[in-house]
Amino acid sequence: MFQKLLLLNLSCVGFPAFCMVALVLSLNCADLCAGVGTQQSDEPQSPSEKFESSTSPFLKTYCIDCHGADSQESGLRFDQIEHDLSDSKAAQTWSDIFAQVQFAEMPPSDSDQPTAEERSRFVESIESELERFNAGFGLKEKMLLPQYGNYVDHETLFDGSITEMPYTPARLWRQRPLIYDAVWEKAYGRAPWYSVKIGGTGNHLIERGPHKGKLLAHRYFADAKYANPFFEFVHHASGFTDYSTIVADQSSLEALMLNAETMAEIMTKGQKVRIVTQVKNKGSRTGNNEAMFVGGVTTSANEYRGRVPVIFRKIMDAEGSVQQQDFREALNVAFNLFLRRLPAETEYEHYWENVFQKNSSLGNTMALQAVLMYVTLSPEFVYRMELGLGGKDSDGRRFLSSQELVHAINYALHNRPAFGIDEIETIDVYTKKSEAPIRKTMSTPNPAWAARHSNLVEEMRQGKLKTKEDVERVVRQMLDVKRKQRSINHNRTYLTTANPRVIQFFREFFGYYKAGEVFKDVEKFKNREGFKHFNAGTASKFAYDTDSLIQQILAEDKNVLYELLTTDKIVVSYWNGSNSKDQIKKARGEKAYVETHHLQGYNLDPFEMAYESGENGKALQVSRDQRCGILTQPSWLVAHSGNFDNDPVRRGKWIREKLLAGTVLDIPVTVDAQIPEDEHQTLRERFRVVNEAECWRCHKKMNPLGMPFESFNHVGRWRASEKNKPVDVSGSIDYSGEPAIEGDVQGVRELMEKLATSDRVRQSFIRHVFRFWMGRNEMLSDSKTLIAMDQAYVESQGSFRELLVSLLTSDSFVYRK
Amino acid sequence: MNKINRRSVLKGVTLGSGALALSPFIKSISAADQKQAPKRFVFVVKSSGLQGDYLNPDGLTHRGETLVDETLQGRKLPESLKSLEVFKDKLTIIQGLSGKMTNSGHSSFYGALGGYKASAHAPPLFATIDGHLSEKFPAVFNHLGFKMGEGSQGTTFPGISAKGKGKQLPFQQNPLSAFENVFGSILEGGDLKKKYTRTGNVLDAMSEDIKKLQKNLPAVEREKLGYYLDGFEALRDRRIKLVSMQKVLKENAPELNEKYTSSIKTHHLEAHFDMASAALITGLTNVVTVHADDLNCVYSGIGVGNNVHAIGHGAGYATLTSQDCRNAIRTFHIELIASMAAKLDKVPEGNGTMLDNTIIVYTSDNAANHHSFGLDWPMVVLGNGGGALKSSGRYLSYPRYGTPNHNHTICNWFTTLCHVAGVPQDFFGQPDMALGKPESQYGPLSELIA
Lengths: 817, 450
What we know:
The complex is a heterodimer. Among the domains of chain A are: 47-141, no CATH class; 174-242 and 259-378, no CATH class; 499-629, no CATH class; 634-760, no CATH class. Chain A contains 36 helices and 18 strands. In chain A, the strands form seven sheets. A five-stranded mixed β-sheet of chain A has the order 3-4-2-5-6. In chain A, strands 11-13-12 form a three-stranded antiparallel β-sheet, covered by helices on one side. In chain A, strand 14 and strand 15 (725-726) form a beta hairpin. Chain A is globular. Mean pLDDT of chain A is 87; it is low at 1-41. By secondary structure, chain B is α/β, with parallel strands linked by helices. Chain B has one domain: 3-Layer(aba) Sandwich (Alkaline Phosphatase, subunit A). Chain B is built from twelve helices and 16 strands. Chain B has helices at residues 6-15, 23-35, 110-114, 129-136, 175-183, 190-215, 219-244, 246-252, 265-281, 308-312, 322-345, 410-420, and strands at 40-46, 68-71, 91-95, 144-147, 155-156, 162-164, 167-168, 171-172, 287-291, 298-299, 304-307, 348-349, 352-353, 358-364, 379-382, 394-397. Chain B has an eight-stranded mixed β-sheet with strand order 2-16-3-15-14-1-9-4, sandwiched between helices. In chain B, a hairpin with a 4-residue loop joins strand 10 and strand 11. In chain B, helix 6 (190-215) runs antiparallel to helix 7 (219-244) and helix 9 runs parallel beside helix 11 (322-345). Mean pLDDT of chain B is 85; it is low at 1-34.
């Protein structure tokens, strides 16, 4: 089965099948697993002894001074530590050591520090010994999670000391929910109903039958109704929604199964449409609303519409047993529809014997439906396989095959499959001779599932997608696609942009799109001075504003990160620059219009503002002292606020983790993270409780970075005072890993200007770009890739496009091991 | 609905044909049955808070500084609990439990039944109490979840129940597809039966395929695919078990009526309760969670045409005030619970009835208010789990949060349920650090342990 699944698109590529099989057979398990060498010694050691000898040097060098015979700080002594972890007390002690060293809390910052490698070797020894007694942390698995990404040592990643050639481990990657939607929603995920009204108004005169001479009006609805099986897990610390560690489980399967059953019906019988026909009993009243039809006759019936492949119909209509040749043709269609390739020879046999014939006693239709369901439950439909089926290099890395490249490049920038559906001969299932408008609606010239191949597939078929140069060429082509730049709103979301995954990255990196998820008491805002502009839809509109602003910055493509962090421009998606009389009247006067206007979110008056038109769209120039980049967009501020207050801790944590590649431990279970309520104190004053030593140990990494944002209220409006006192906007940058930017700051502008010019911040940003597009955390072996990305960005004067090209042509992207 | 004795039915099944392959499962159930009937748990979880002020019997109040422990006998139940009057001797009203360890706001999500911080978009940290108990009392469906919602979706994931870390439990939303999923094996003839067989065949073949594929993958990826494989095996096992239970299912499955296809969502909730009762009676499951509504639900079937969220924010409907609407919704839920209890009470089991071994907990996913801080989390509890829960009609109000004697959280209540279920553990969920050291919060609510 493994071999079969790896034979992707043989027919498309034109590779001789036997070459592929030979390659697959050579990929045995040992090749795929990263082999770990074991050291041989003359005298066999027990595992506990090995553990002792591997951990003692570290303890001696870094710990014993304070936790040894002479001194036992915190009552801990390690020179006589127990190494037999079957003793639960010893296991607990080692667990504690593990956590302290792993999360760099120990050795203390003022003493000698181990190298990153020493540290990681030490904690790995502890981890594996703890695992042996089932007391481990699952460190390896944990380190794959996005929220642990920053634990990979930053300096080592960028100092050029790593010589290992980059690669990505061979992997399965669960399809994204958006990809599933793209395949499923339009064709199989809709619940249609059709309303026909006779005897009211309408533009069709009925030609025959009992209602001849009456008018007919109709309306067709098809709402998306299905459960996406691929539930997203977004970790608060990472924000990235798609990581290759995410699995499909029973919950996914139950949804897939349900959807597969619906699809099998649609592909064999057509889409069921509920037609509700309402007939007026008297033609004396006009109008089509429900009230006009009271007393009339309502009937409903189910009809089918859509296109069914001819070969399916042939199989369903066959009396008795089905010809194997017909089955092969049907399987081609099923694969074409969902896996977008032709089956391999072994797959024809497998599906014929184990799926079709096994169900043939239920009838040919059921057996065919079983085949269709089977395809959409198969691991290949659920998981994208990135195993590296191209050539192997001297470092033991395997290049992605052409088909793998098509998937990898396409899904880097898009959310729909690259492979389309080759033409399938179909027939229309609706054949009734009904009234013309009904026949027109119910008959289907084109199947709902039709999909074109992308340009990438064409390149692959012409054999032009094999080398890194090829990858660079196609990536540049894709990034060059220009569409008319228009601001983003609910009708025209980021998904409609040329390469939607680009803005998606910024949405997930900054997290501002979650503004709408933060509960705000909008009912109370209606009567509250300075909050009247904020209604139920405002937070989402703020997010569209930010989408649009980012789109403009990317179109300029100069010093992108600097601009993102410091721009004094804003874009307002829902204001075209004019103040129409109608709108003013609707708002009941100019005063109310101004007070409730969306621009109030930015402390602006619509009568005083005018757009500046640039090459890449319209923007508003605002006060440099008030707005400074994405972090001062109301969307970001609201997304990182509480229900009733600002949240300087989350804001500071965001900067620490996203911009400084720093780490903050999760709230320890011994902490009740509450700040006291006090209506007379400012938030900063109420936060004094965390200045206690125990709290400050972690909060010092967050609060000084988050406090400058106190110059905004919790709905993102700039303010000069709080509780009738001038706002204290002081803060500081500390423990950043870059002394040049450290020190006190007064206000957001100073904070952001410092951060925006920092090497550390740029590199932290680049690490997050890597994570988003690779779907995994960086490993030390990705160092060369990251350094090249950094160089590409700096040398191109901050071009995000060049940064992306560098990543998508890197070894990390194209090699598997 | 026929009255049946579950033990005899199961005996009948073991004697029946085709039961050979299933004997371990049947044995385990009948063995447990002979020793002791399984404990059953039903959690009915509403959204928008369960208001404690409307749960106090005449003359009793909560939020005091000391424990109030009174019998319900001789007391007039509050208006919305009227339909439980007949079960007064099995009723326990608990007030004053806190749940500050959860994330509050509009919903505590997994926290409401798990006693920990959770959100809509993050995977659950641990099992919730229903998921935990469902693993302890396995059945064909270890856990069944029903949820009133928009109705078109078959399976949905409201983020309320989990059987372990990262393992959210599915809920059935559309009643018709719920019927197919739960009682599908008894459908006779026609396409529905064939469909059921077809799906079974697909499950069989696919799990073999996945195993073969796994052998050729690196360890991490093998494990990743393992989660998917587990799904197939779980579904396949379930179907095998269902076949063995056709007789009992046929006798007890609810009647498929217009409630199942109604456009009025409250009819769906009624159907959910019917199916939940039947599933318990037939032994299809021992643990059910009904997530009665969410903030978008409209109770038009009981004359409340505004959605739960709007009502929570003070909107009324027609001549009803917001509070009238809340009262109507609560009363409706309690009536459904009462009718479920009545059904269980008709089925003899051991020396009593099935209800004797069942505990129904009515609570909210968001403590006592529409916007909650988790200070006060009422529980209305029907049944005493075969006497393990010390109550023969009791009102308990713990000292309010913030007073010196308050040391009673929803986690203590969940721990109590573990004890009552006969699977005691020190603690369930996460402690509330503001109340002191974790150890000081261990243990069940001692007043309720028999």
